[in-house]
Amino acid sequence: MSEATGSREFFTARTVSEALAGFRPARRSAVERVPLAAALHRVPAAAVASPSPLPGFVRSTVDGYAVRAADTYGASEGLPSYLDLRGAVRMGAAPDVTVTPGACVAMPTGGVLPEGADAVVMVEYTAATMPGTIEITRPVAPGGGVVRADEDVAAGAALVPAGRPLRAPDLGLLAAAGVTDVAVHARPRVAIISTGDEVVPSSTVDLGPGQVRDATAPALAALVLDAGGDPVQAGIVDDEPGALTDRLSEVLADADLVVVSAGSSVGARDETAGAVAAVGEIWCHGLAIKPGKPTLLADCGGVPLIGLPGNPLSALVVFGQIGVPLLWRLSGCDTPPPLPVTRARLSRDLASAAGRLDVIQVTLADGVAEPLFGPSALLSVLARADGYVVIPEPATGLPAGTEVDVIGHR
Amino acid sequence: MSEATGSREFFTARTVSEALAGFRPARRSAVERVPLAAALHRVPAAAVASPSPLPGFVRSTVDGYAVRAADTYGASEGLPSYLDLRGAVRMGAAPDVTVTPGACVAMPTGGVLPEGADAVVMVEYTAATMPGTIEITRPVAPGGGVVRADEDVAAGAALVPAGRPLRAPDLGLLAAAGVTDVAVHARPRVAIISTGDEVVPSSTVDLGPGQVRDATAPALAALVLDAGGDPVQAGIVDDEPGALTDRLSEVLADADLVVVSAGSSVGARDETAGAVAAVGEIWCHGLAIKPGKPTLLADCGGVPLIGLPGNPLSALVVFGQIGVPLLWRLSGCDTPPPLPVTRARLSRDLASAAGRLDVIQVTLADGVAEPLFGPSALLSVLARADGYVVIPEPATGLPAGTEVDVIGHR
């Protein structure tokens, strides 16, 4: 364990900004094809090109009459144009009439523009006063009331870009274009290891003296799911020398990211650093974030590893700030999607140290963010919070009344 | 179909505010028990009480020495207190020593406070200069350096409230308290019906003239999933009289919410209104929202129904404004979780009508929101948008430069 002590001395703390800019593994999760119905929030590995133009035909965007635009020039309420009604276009079918000069055809919204026509007059600017004749009371320009066959998407154009998680409208557009499956990055596999002699599985009914159920692992799994990852519960490792190194070697074979929630004692923390040093290269040990200072980041042969602080609140805060962006990056997305935010005013002054990122849990009521204080070891603080406020690294604090973004816990 | 025409004439448009305040079905989805690992974002049907206090024992929050606080009073760097070291507490185990006057015991963070001690002095304020003796250089008050056995949660206190979707930290707290499953509202079943003679399944490879693949249904399914619902694809119904009424009767037997995306033609829209009037009571036909005016809301024997406009963009906008809050309410949550928001400045003036809610798709770059215009029938507008800006009902527009919340498409 001399290595552990050694590494603690050797590595200085980094800031969160430094970690986000500098701890950027090249690794990306594998690429797999998934059906469209399973592609929500998945990240395309490449832009998806449209196999054909959309809508694919000149399509009416209004209910009205297909015309030759020139036949409507000069039409007005006082002096309408009169056109011969030659029939009607049916939805989802080829028109069986053509529009010759002086003629028109009834058009439903979404219908195919018949041959000979170059515009659709809205029904509001027409009247059917005599059988077989339509009065036009307003002119329409060529192309009016229709969309071109490739106006929505040209053939070969990108329907969705690479690297941005797919959203509901994307799935609609892909479906419209006839795309039935997409090549996306696999959900990154995140191995979650808990350590600490006091930690027992959360399924444990009766606790022994000093035992605590594992709270961090189930909460981390939820954060991983929310960030598009696939959490793999890799169990609890006790503080026995070598046990963590062995477990790390096992999970590294099949993980895109490894998260170790350290035991809370100094012994367990040293154990973690020593074990990690045996399987990878420690990038930083200590992060300028509160809560969350005893964080460790390492590169284990290309697989990033995050050593989280022992107390669950700190662990979840650090994972949110460091692990979530990393997870998106592993799945091919360099810009994580925006967070749920509510704007509010601080109820009181908040102190911070320059160069340190502070994450303050708050409750929200009537536009006021009320900080929740108390020992940072209390999980109930997190569960009671409506969200959190971040005090940026350069700031030395925020005065009461400051308008802040409260980032919601999802 | 005279009913259809009748209902279109009869019902006046409502505002979105009126719909949100007035169209509030009493229905809630059934209650089911799910294991904790499947409970993320689910809505508890009742508050969950803690079966026991947390952490359950007087727990050290620091690394240091368990002491009787009175033995440290007056201690300073210049004049330390000297205490006999009687042993160490091990993690996850009952202490096998007691702290008598003048004595101390080494404590790891998270350890059980031994009998006789009432505080823990942080290791930073101690020195081990002679074997068997610890120097204390700063006094500690009773209760210092520890949390009470019920400080996180008292036995019987609520761990999580009813009606608020469970978030990652909640799962951690529930796990810590030994809760292994939770009674939550079932995901509301949302039957999605598409109508329109021109609409064909999105799996269709070769389109006939005038046909379009169903884009709305897959996109709606994604919005339903995001809002905690269970989408049930109920297929495409053609514009044949009676066909929609029959399908509605079938799906109403087993749905918490029914969504009908109307065909785009006026004929298909009339068909929808007529069919809905045959199975329920129309609450409004026409909504003061742009895009999305031809929206229909109905109560079908306690099951709410939303008739969406024919064009996919309008349909998705209306479902986001009306359907999503309704869906949360059906699952027992009256306050939907906050939305992903980015603040930005408008690049140009936006017009609106007072009393109407306008939803404008925008792209985002460098803190500027650039509205995307174009025929509202274009799905690609939605897929290109980074999010949308809402112009509230009372406003007649927003000038360029206004700071707005851009709500992200998830």
From TrEMBL, chains A, B:
Keyword annotations of the record: Magnesium, Metal-binding, Molybdenum, Molybdenum cofactor biosynthesis, Transferase
SUPFAM superfamilies assigned to the protein according to its UniProt record, in alphabetical order: MoeA C-terminal domain-like (SSF63867), MoeA N-terminal region -like (SSF63882), Molybdenum cofactor biosynthesis proteins (SSF53218)
GO biological process, one term: Mo-molybdopterin cofactor biosynthetic process
InterPro entries tied to this protein: MoaB/Mog-like_dom_sf, MoaB/Mog_dom, MoCF_biosynth_CS, MoeA-like, MoeA_C_domain_IV, MoeA_C_domain_IV_sf, MoeA_linker/N, MoeA_linker/N_sf
Reaction equation(s) it catalyzes: adenylyl-molybdopterin + molybdate = Mo-molybdopterin + AMP + H(+)
Gene3D superfamilies registered for this protein in UniProt: MoaB/Mog-like domain, MoeA, C-terminal, domain IV, Molybdopterin biosynthesis moea protein, domain 2, Molybdopterin biosynthesis moea protein, domain 3
Signal peptide, first to last residue: none
Domain MoaB/Mog per the UniProt entry, residue ranges: 191-329
MF terms (GO), sorted A to Z: metal ion binding; molybdopterin molybdotransferase activity
GO cellular component terms, A-Z: cytoplasm
Pathway in which the depicted protein is active: Cofactor biosynthesis; molybdopterin biosynthesis
Protein family membership: Belongs to the MoeA family.
Cross-referenced NCBIfam families: Glp_gephyrin, molyb_syn
Function: Catalyzes the insertion of molybdate into adenylated molybdopterin with the concomitant release of AMP.
Entry protein name: Molybdopterin molybdenumtransferase
Species of the source: Actinophytocola xinjiangensis
